[in-house]
Amino acid sequence: VGKRKAQIAAIRRSCGDLVLNVDSDTILAPDVITRLALKMQDQAVGAAMGQLAASNRSETWLTRLIDMEYWLACNEERAAQARFGAVMCCCGPCAMYRRSALVSLLDQYETQRFRGKPSDFGEDRHLTILMLKAGFRTEYVPEAVAATVVPNSMGPYLRQQLRWARSTFRDTLLAFQLLRGLNIYLTLDVIGQNIGPLLLSLSILAGLAQFVTTGTVPWTACLMIAAMTIVRCSVAAFRARQLRFLGFSLHTLINIFLLLPLKAY
């Protein structure tokens, strides 16, 4: 049947004003529903998501890294988007929706296709975009904390990232149709999410070409990438008041040598 079909069946059988979507491995803090429901009191809000953390953070070095990745995604990207009432993806592990809005969007949600086939991934991002397209605001509530199980080895993590990348690129065209009515920051944000990996890839390819053709190391590009990584991680460590975020620098290497080639493929 699939997750999307199950969601649709549950929504159609529900009768409340609000619908809470959680994954099967999500652990909610006791006040999550209350905090999300308070945000949803504004009738202009169609969806609201909570802050995500890794429930198995202490398992491996990778789960610790992913936990930091979630914190950054929530408290930098989503928090910034929420200032304009347009979180671009209310994440599946913990998101609350206005049922009346959901019901009006179910046909579009159910019939989404990708490359000629019914879509079976990226449900949360697509549903969020549909909410924004329908004129509703989407919000982020950092006080509503939910913990979810994250991949503890590289194989499952890379497969997860590939699904998310496909979802992001697929729904970008739909998102662009909304941007004219939203703040200019959101336009830059969407462009950056899609152009950023391309520019990084071009920098790496240019560096490799320089090394192959001249035998010299592209130190300028290497130092620039390293400096940007250190600045970002230092800011995160300061904001979170946790020095562990300095270790997120390792993610840059994973991004360059694993995620970028995978996404290109």
From TrEMBL:
Record Pfam families: Chitin_synth_2
Source species: Mesorhizobium helmanticense
Phylogenetic placement of the source organism: Bacteria, Pseudomonadati, Pseudomonadota, Alphaproteobacteria, Hyphomicrobiales
UniProt entry keywords in alphabetical sequence: Cell membrane, Glycosyltransferase, Membrane, Transferase, Transmembrane, Transmembrane helix
Domain of life: Bacteria
Membrane-spanning ranges: 198-231, 243-262
Protein's gene: nodC
Gene3D superfamilies: Spore Coat Polysaccharide Biosynthesis Protein SpsA, Chain A
Compartments (UniProt record): Cell membrane
Cellular component annotations (GO), alphabetically ordered: plasma membrane
Name by which UniProt lists this protein: N-acetylglucosaminyltransferase NodC
GO biological process terms on file: extracellular matrix assembly; hyaluronan biosynthetic process
Molecular-function annotations in GO: hyaluronan synthase activity
